[in-house]
Amino acid sequence: MIGIRPACLWLAFAMVISSTAFGASTAFGASPTREELQEYRLPAPPPRAEEAKIELGRMLYFDRRLSGDGTMNCATCHLPGEDGFADGREVSAAYPTNAHFRNTPTTVNAAMRTFLTWDGRAASTTEQALGPIGSPFEMNILLDLLVEKLRSVPIYSKAFSKAFDSDVTKEGIAQALSAFEGLLISGPSPFDLYLDGDDNAMSESALKGLELFFGKGSCVACHDGPQLGGDRFESLGMELNPKLVEYPRRAVSLRYYAKKMGYPLELGREDDHGRYFVTGLEEDKGKFLVPTLRQLERTFPYGHDGRFFTLLEIVDYIAEGGGKAVHRSEELNPLGLTSEEKTHLVDFLLSLTGPDPLVKPPSSLY
Q1: Which one of 82, 247, 303, 324 is most buried, counting C-beta atoms within 10 A?
Q2: CA 146, CA 170: separation in Å to the nearest integer?
C-alpha cells in the first residue's frame, strides 16, 4: 500500500482526520501486544431501536422534502456506498447560492461517538439531527414548516403514528433519524481482525505503522479508545485557510454561524475558531474535535476544512509539528519520521477501515 492513491480510488467522501501525534509518552512498549490493544477493537453496536422508528428514519434520511427547495436530503452530504456516508468534497454541500466552510464527517459509527460535529456542539445523533435541516446555508427549511409539510403527506402521518403514537413533531423527526443512524455501524476492519487473532489481516507495512502509532509517533495520545479519536479537542496550529478569501460565500456562512453562536466575526477577518464558538473560552480558539480514524480510506479529504487531500499530506503536516497559528497545542512536536515510516503509518491508518453498512433507500417516497 502507498500513501497517495489515484483520485479514482479516493473519490469517496469527506470526513475527518486531523490526526494528532503528540509528544506525550504512552503506556505501550515498542511493539504492543494484541492483549494490550484489546480496548481499541470496534465496540458492539448500540441497542437496536424499534423497527417502526428505524423505517421512519430511513424515509426521512432520503427525503428531499427536508430541504427548503426540495433538492437536498441527508444523503446529499452523507452518501451510502463508495462515498462512505460522506461526500468527497473539501467542504459540505450547501443550499443553492450558499457555501459551507467545514468538511463533512461520516455518519458511520456516529451513534457510538462522544461528540458530533467539528466543534462538538452536539453530543448525540438525536441532538445533531435537526441542525443541518434548519440551517439557512445547509438544508434551509424552518422546522415548524417542515412539520406541517410532512403532516400533509399520508405516509408520514401513518409512520409517525406507528413509531410514536403521535402526529408529526420536530422531536419525532430527530429521534427517527437517530434511530436510523444507529444502524450505520461499520464491520470489522483489518485492525480488528488482527486483534481477533488473524495474523494475515494486516500487511507487514501496516503492522510497522501500528508500532509507530502506539510508539514513536505517539498518535494514541489523542486518538485513543475504540474509535481512535472523537472525545477531545486539540489545535494543529492551522493557519487561516485562504479559500475563505477566495470563496466569499464560505466567509458569509462562517460569519453567520459565529454570530448565531454568540461570537460575531469582523468582516474581512474571518477565521474558523472551532470549539471556541461553543464554549467562548479563549484557550479553545482553533481547537477542533480530534476525529475518529475509522473508515479513513473512504472519507477524504481530511481536516475540518478539507485542506488535506491525502493521508500522506496530513501525516507530513503533523510529523513536522503542525502549523504556526497562535493557539497550536503545546504538545505538538516534530516527530522525525522517515519517508518509509510515514508510508507505514499511512498503511496502518488505512487498515482501520472496515466494510460500510449496506443501506437501501425506501422504494418510494412520492
Answers
A1: 303
A2: 8
DSSP-derived secondary structure for 244-272: HHHSHHHHHHHHHHHHHTT----TT----
Catalytic residue list contains 138:
yes
CA gap 286, 263 in Å, rounded: 14
Task: From 179, 178, 170, 240, select the one nearest 52 (Cα to Cα).
Answer: 179
pLDDT per residue rounded down to tens, the chain (366 residues): 333 333 333 223 233 333 334 333 345 666 889 999 999 999 899 999 999 999 999 999 999 999 999 999 999 999 998 789 999 999 999 999 999 999 999 999 999 999 999 999 999 999 999 999 999 999 999 999 999 999 999 999 999 999 999 999 999 999 999 999 999 999 999 999 999 999 999 999 999 999 999 999 999 999 999 999 989 999 999 999 999 989 999 999 999 999 999 999 999 999 999 999 999 999 999 999 999 999 999 999 999 999 999 999 999 999 999 999 878 887 788 999 999 999 999 999 999 999 999 998 998 776
Q: Among residues 355, 243, 260, which one has the least CA distance to residue 303?
A: 243
Between helix 51-61 and helix 154-164 the angle, nearest 10°, is: 150
**Sequence-ordered strand ranges (E) for the chain:** 233-234, 288-289
User: DSSP character for 74?
Assistant: G
This prediction has a pTM of 0.89
Q: DSSP assignment, residue 240? A: P
Domains identified in the chain and CATH numbers: 51-181 (1.10.760.10)
90, 138, 181, 297: the active-site residue? 138
In the chain, the amino acid numbered 167 is D
Cis ω for the linkage preceding 355 (within 30 of 0): no
The DSSP result for 196-227, as a single string, is: TT-TTSS-HHHHHHHHHHHTTT-GGGTS-TTT
For 203, phi then psi, to 5°, come to -70, 165
CA separation, residue 249 to residues 93, 275, 330, 350 (Å) = 12, 22, 33, 34
Backbone torsion region of residue 108, taken as left when φ is above 0, otherwise alpha when ψ lies between -120 and 50, otherwise beta: beta
